[in-house]
Amino acid sequence: MAVFGLAAGLMFVLTGCGRTGEREKNSIKIGVSVYDQYDTFIAQLMESLEEAVKEKEMETGGSITLEVQNAAGSQSEQNNQIEDFIHSGCDVVCVNLVDRTDPTMIIDKAKSADVPVIFFNRELVEEDLERWEKLYYVGAVTLESGIMQGEIVAEAYKDYGKRLDKNGDGILQYVMLEGEAGHQDAIIRTEYSVNTIIEAGIPVEKLGHAIANWNRGQAQSKMQQWMETFGDKIELVLSNNDDMALGAIDAYKAAEIPLSEYPFIAGIDGTKVGLEAIQEGSLGATVFNDGAGQAKEMLKLAYDLAADKSLADVEYMEGRYVRLPHQKVRWKE
Ligand code: BGC
Is there an atom of ligand 1 within 6 Å of 100 CB? Predict the structure, then answer.
């Protein structure tokens, strides 16, 4: 059980019945540190977490204090934030790691204070998760996103083949916009989307690939360079997330190229802005990464851990992993 911050004024009540060790607190405190608060997907996930907190408060009648900090790309800053959360009496901490290979300090501190940790979105390696029984991970079914992106491109090719394959050579010339180096989603999506297209029997030719760090502006400038080099030879833009796909669209808009001449652009996430671009027809497809669902499951888990209840309530849980499924979203005429 977490170190209850009586000194910090936290109160808890024991419910009379229930399983041994099961108790409800009427006031819990959760500390959250995100790797970058300006990341579109993360910002949206945090909005959902705040909504989930309100819903849970209504449902339970208790109070939940959510303290959110931005690590702004610094692992050492994040380590300090977690240390502060623990000292200020947080019952649980939720960590969106800056460097997913470097959770040691956080794990050591949390373990010595007996405060459970829920890592989310940026996945630590299994050996690290195994280091203590109160470490959890909430995220998506990683492989699925890349596979689904490839499948939608293959489906679109079957439906609108000639329009995708502009030069009619039977090969899809593509460029790949990759997320951060070393991020589990960037690695998996890059590999699986292309392989799935090839497995569907569609020959491809890579014109270029670049790391744009999940970032719209960086993706726009990469896309501008490719447009100068390859012009309308580019038939497909595969992007590891929606924000970078939107950056590619920004490049086409800035060049005043008509929508009908855009290549097929595919993202992943289904963020609000991504879905708007699908409506507009500039984004051909995306794969919905259920950030709201992840936030909800994370809150349930945090609440149960803080209340020391059994974790049977949390959906999609396998061992200490909670992984939510994706959904395909495609523009249709
Ligand atoms: C999302 C990206 C986001 C990244 C942050 C990924 O799962 O698809 O949009 O930038 O997580 O870690």
Answer: no
The CATH number of whichever domain residue 83 belongs to comes to 3.40.50.2300
Ligand 1 near 268 CB (within 6 A) = yes
What confidence tens digit (pLDDT) does each residue in 182-208 have? 999 999 999 999 999 999 999 999 999
SS3 of residue 262 by DSSP: coil
Domain extent at residue 119: 28-133+290-324
Global pTM reads 0.92
Q: Is 144 in the pocket of ligand 1 (CB under 6 A)?
A: no
Give a yes or no: residue 190 inside a domain. yes
- Residue whose CA lies nearest to ligand 1 atom number 11: 121
Instruction: Indicate if ligand 1 lies below 6 Å from the C-beta of 189.
Output: no
Indicate the burial class of 61 (C-beta count within 10 angstroms; 0-12, 13-18, 19 or more).
Answer: exposed
